[in-house]
Amino acid sequence: MSKPIVFITGNAKKLEEFVAILGNDFPREIQSRKLDLPEYQGAMEDICCHKCRTAADIVKGPTIIEDTCLCFNAMKGLPGPYIKWFVDKLGPEGLYQMLHGWEDKTAEAICTFAYCDGGPEDPVLMFHGSTQGTIVSPRGSRDFGWDACFQPLGSDKTYAELPTDVKNQISHRSKALEKLKHYLLKNVQH
Questions:
Q1: Torsion of CA 38, 29, 178, 72, to 10 degrees
Q2: Rounded to whole angstroms, what are the CA distances from 77 to 14, 71, 86, 147, 154?
Q3: Peptide bond preceding 79: is omega within 30 degrees of 0, i.e. cis?
Q4: DSSP strand E in the chain: where?
Q5: What are 17-68's pLDDT values in tens digits?
Q6: Cα dist from 74 to 15, 19, 79, 104, 118, whole Å
Q7: Which of 4, 105, 108, 162 sits CB 3.0–4.6 Å from 29 for a disulfide?
């Protein structure tokens, strides 16, 4: 019997999206666990690698972490991996106001899933997905981070205004998770 894969998150909305995108046909048991991991600083790849390695050392088994960046093009990629703190302090309205002095309101939402089998020598593998969009005056529900101020390219609605099934087809998270799912189905014992 294979060990369950542990998805490290304390965010109920993130877990809900993860399970919905992964689908009912996934052959492995997925458990979620909240861990208070250190808040690493640095580039997105380094942060993800350190978080996954630390979590895998604690779980001692197959582990997935997720990290999301929201990169404002006018600000050369900031707030990037620090978006969680910006949302906590400013909310979607404050994020929109941050770009007040810039003509360029475009942004890139990036999701990275990092996976490790859990052994001390096992590598950390990364799976990225991104969605281009625009930072707009917030519209829609305010119950999930910055969704209310991110309008994906080609849409007239923000993430928060889109039906969940539509968002889950086009989001940065779904693109990264599809890559992770493909890898797991092909390479990890069932």
A1: -20
A2: 23, 4, 14, 18, 21
A3: yes
A4: 5-8, 30-33, 63-72, 79-80, 106-116, 125-135, 150-152
A5: 888 888 877 888 888 899 988 888 889 999 999 999 999 999 999 999 999 9
A6: 31, 34, 11, 6, 39
A7: 4
Is the separation of the CB atoms in 72 and 150 below 8 Å?
no
Q: What is the pTM of this model?
A: 0.90
Q: Is the dihedral of CA 6, 7, 10, 15 positive or negative?
A: negative
Asked if pLDDT for residue 188 goes beyond 60, the answer is yes
Only one residue has tokens 């990275």, namely 112
Q: Report residue 61: phi and psi, to 5°.
A: -175, -175
Per-residue model confidence (pLDDT) at position 189 = 60
